[in-house]
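Protocol step 4 of 6: structure prediction from sequence.
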Amino acid sequence: LVNFMNYYRKEFSDASVTPKMHMMENHLIPQVQKWKFAMGFLGEQGAESIHASFNSIERSYVSIPNKVDRLLRVMQEHLLRIDPENQYLAPQLFYLKKLLQLQ
């Protein structure tokens, strides 16, 4: 990426750096390192895919009347779909019930 941008600036000195090139040059590597996923999620196709996924999931939770509660469920479901390992980040319902009974 660094080599490409150096080449681009040298060979096309009159050309401007597009917003996508700026994003790649200045933000891509830190984003991948921080969030551990590839560029596809950041492009138009990735955004459209996520949007379609959210719409599909939301149809499953349409019966929840409170919009905030519904959005929370949609986001939780989406998080589990994109990375099933996330299920281990939340306390399991069984253990939570046990804990509440002990109090």
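Step 5 (inspection) to follow. The first helix runs from residue 2 to 11.
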